[in-house]
Amino acid sequence: MLGTVVATLTGLTVRDRKSWRVGLYGYNGCLVGVALPTFLEMSPLVWGCIVLGSIISVVSTLCIADILKTWKVAALTAPFVFTTWIILLSSYAFSSLHNGGLPHPSFPHQFIVETNSTENRHYVFDSLFNGISQIFLFSSLIGGILFLIGLAIESLWAAIFAVCGSFLAILTATFLMANYDSIHLGLYSFSAVLTAIALGSTFNNPSWRVLAYTLIGVIFTVIVQGALDTLLSPLGIPTLTMPFVLASWLFLVPNKEIMPAHRQ
Amino acid sequence: MLGTVVATLTGLTVRDRKSWRVGLYGYNGCLVGVALPTFLEMSPLVWGCIVLGSIISVVSTLCIADILKTWKVAALTAPFVFTTWIILLSSYAFSSLHNGGLPHPSFPHQFIVETNSTENRHYVFDSLFNGISQIFLFSSLIGGILFLIGLAIESLWAAIFAVCGSFLAILTATFLMANYDSIHLGLYSFSAVLTAIALGSTFNNPSWRVLAYTLIGVIFTVIVQGALDTLLSPLGIPTLTMPFVLASWLFLVPNKEIMPAHRQ
Amino acid sequence: MLGTVVATLTGLTVRDRKSWRVGLYGYNGCLVGVALPTFLEMSPLVWGCIVLGSIISVVSTLCIADILKTWKVAALTAPFVFTTWIILLSSYAFSSLHNGGLPHPSFPHQFIVETNSTENRHYVFDSLFNGISQIFLFSSLIGGILFLIGLAIESLWAAIFAVCGSFLAILTATFLMANYDSIHLGLYSFSAVLTAIALGSTFNNPSWRVLAYTLIGVIFTVIVQGALDTLLSPLGIPTLTMPFVLASWLFLVPNKEIMPAHRQ
Q1: End residue of a domain, out of B93, B112, B141
Q2: Which of A142, B194, C110, C169 has the maximal Cβ count within 10 Å?
């Protein structure tokens, strides 16, 4: 927990020293700083990886933003995802990086429900906010509420979309009978929360048409989450926020054609 | 069989209700409607997936077409392939989607011929039309002939290229000693048929130079088919028409440079 | 050894007959001709694959160059990597192509050092030049020195960057405790050598700022090498020069923004 906070500061410091547009380049480095200590056992070398990862995340933000400029789409958290994936994948090859926190590589296999679904409704309030705190890779009711308050101060619409997105994602995943523990920990909703905010409030002015569009986007994000979990299972790395990035890119690229009037 | 037809109609209905350019956006939704019941056990939820998949296939057609516009290439069946892959991959994570029809995930291993090749020539006529019907994910002599007649009415050249493409693909796969049963079922030729039509007749006016170009394209499609079978074997999903999409993109992007005179 | 030389000549001959800009299109075909006999057991069919692979490498050079033109980046050795990957992957499906030289497909697992690191310094001189000769897929002190002399005649800066890149890569990989045998054979340095040449001398005029940029690029290439080794382990194919291609693209796309003054 402390490590996460310090890592975040390090990530930000590295950006600050560079004196570049911090707001835009900083958050990917910050997320790298949060993610690496979650999956790798802490050591001085992991600190080095965070510093290097922050620099690489800035370079890849520039690179991905330059590529996506062609289609007028933002890089979102893709630089964070690619940088972290590369470092986590490489940890298998380097014996000085201990990846105890990574899932064990295995073939995908059909998930079959074992628990009874009656215990479901008890925790839906917790699950709702776990999904929001899971964006920063931990499950916490308080953390989720704090993040939501911060978001509401910035934009009330964004906060409303975040809660509704989290709820809709839990509903979809439960309906499709995904692993109940994963749903409760917010593993099916954190990407959906980001998609809901991105499609619903950041990039478009809210309206009924945007609402329907966001609804489909959130449901699709849950399916992409399941698909990426399967895709990455033989590699033993987590999806991070890639489902959000893929679903948002898919819905934002043709956005200009479908709803030009509501585009900001 | 009946399910396939009904699914196709559903796929088309969804498009119709949207009242968008049906011809262009419809066929990817239609293919999603054919593919999902082939690999997933039918249930009301799979119907829901077909409806959602059709909507997603329209959004991804818009998205992919917008991206490829930069290089003046068509989306082909890529929206169908990506949409279906995502739903099939996600079926592993959701216990309400039973993926009994999917191949079992396994490591790639060198294929070694066991059957003797003398029984080969007996079925080459069947294999030829299986390759054409396999585009719609089933092996049938009658189905292949019916599809070919439909194609011939539209364009005689396309039908000729389809038959020649299927024959050349069977020849190449047999020469490279692929699994004989797979060849007979048309699994090495359905993508090659589409490549032959796309490179030979749809996008370019037929000529000797186009013919040589198409010949290489068809042989390459068979190799890409083998490569994608290997690539996807740890994930337990089928290649669908991706070999056709990859080979056609590869040969169409530099097309303007190699043969500008024959370009329509 | 002899086969490699003859294959190289074949690769070049195919290009010559086409009478196209040999210098630009030839080297990818040449590398395909070197790579295939390294991983596949020689047979007349492999010769056919080399000829087909050379043609495909020219088409994919045109295709990739056309795509990357949008962001003003070169295709580098990407056409060689993709063409060879496809043929090697397909060799699993075709029993007439024996892929005895390919690594066995397996799940990624954390590498743990067994040897003691004291024997390290004895061979660092050998390792240095193995990394350079490994670009052409073999480990040889003499081969590395000969290649370096050839490079020095063309450009002294390029040769200096090659040696420094190889040394820095060995240092980084040793520091991260990668498999010592792999380091000694140059498997962690051949891509780093190419990155050092590309970032340091070919695309930019050398300066202190370029030097720092190249330094990070080389260290990152070693990490990408480890990541791609993990990524490809379930598929049983080698990384080839993909780490170089990925790292160089990442650093070259935003290059115009970071250092426009030094850009040639």
Answers
A1: B93
A2: C169
Q: Is residue B116 part of a domain?
A: no
Domain count, chain C: 2
Q: Are residue C32 and residue C131 in the same domain, yes or no?
A: no
- Does the pLDDT of residue A225 top 90, yes or no? yes
Residue A204: strand pairing partners: A263
The answer to whether residues B83 and B164 belong to one domain is no
Q: b vs e for A38-70, b when ≥16 Cβ sit within 10 Å of the residue's Cβ?
A: bbbeeeebbbebbbbbbbbbbbbbbbbbbbbee
Phi-psi region of B220 (alpha: psi -120 to 50; beta: other; left: phi over 0): alpha
Q: Which domain holds residue C211?
A: 122-253
User: C31-60: b or e for each residue (b if 16 or more CB lie within 10 Å)?
Assistant: bbbbbbbbbbeeeebbbebbbbbbbbbbbb
Q: Give the pLDDT mean for A43-65.
A: 86
Higher pLDDT, C243 or A38: C243
Question: ipTM score here?
Answer: 0.88
Q: Is the pLDDT of residue B15 over 60?
A: no
Q: Which of A114, A209, A253, A257 to mutate to test the interface with B (most CBs of B within 10 A)?
A: A253
Distance, CA of C166 to CA of C171 (rounded, Å): 9
Q: Band of the pLDDT at A144, cuts 50, 70, 90?
A: confident
Of A9 and C135, the one with more pLDDT? C135
Q: Is the dihedral angle over the CA atoms C29, C33, C39, C44 positive or is it negative?
A: positive
Neighbouring chains to A with at least 3 Cβ pairs closer than 8 Å: B, C
Candidates C206, C226, C215, C223; CA nearest to C251 is C215
- DSSP for C183-232? HHTTTTTHHHHHHHHIIIIISB---HHHHHHHHHHHHHHHHHHHHHHHHH
Dihedrals φ, ψ of A263, to 5°? -65, 135
CA distance A52 to C216: 8
Read off the pLDDT band of B170 (50, 70, 90). Answer: very high
Query: DSSP class of residue B254?
Result: T
CB B65 within 8 A of CB B75: yes
Interface of C with A (CB under 8 A): 70-71, 107-113, 173, 175-179, 216, 219-220, 223-231, 234, 249-251, 253-254, 257-258
pLDDT of B89 > 50? The answer is yes
Which residues in chain C have Cβ-Cβ distances shorter than 8 Å to A70? 70-71
In a domain, C114, yes or no: no
Mean pLDDT of C26-40: 83
- Distance, CA of C131 to CA of C126 (rounded, Å): 9
Higher pLDDT, A83 or A59: A83
Q: How confident is the model at residue B3 (pLDDT cuts 50, 70, 90)?
A: very low
In the structure encoding, which two tokens stand for residue A72, read together? 């007028």
Per-residue pLDDT averaged across B138-145, rounded?
A: 82
C182 and C72 in one domain? no
**A186 shares a domain with A68:** no
Probe site for chain B from A67, A223, A225, A235 (most B CB atoms < 10 A): A223
Shared domain for A56 and A144, answered yes or no, is no
Residue ranges in chain C assigned as alpha helix (H) = 2-18, 22-39, 44-68, 78-91, 124-133, 141-154, 156-175, 180-184, 190-197, 208-232, 242-252, 255-258
Residues B69 and B192 both lie in one domain:
no
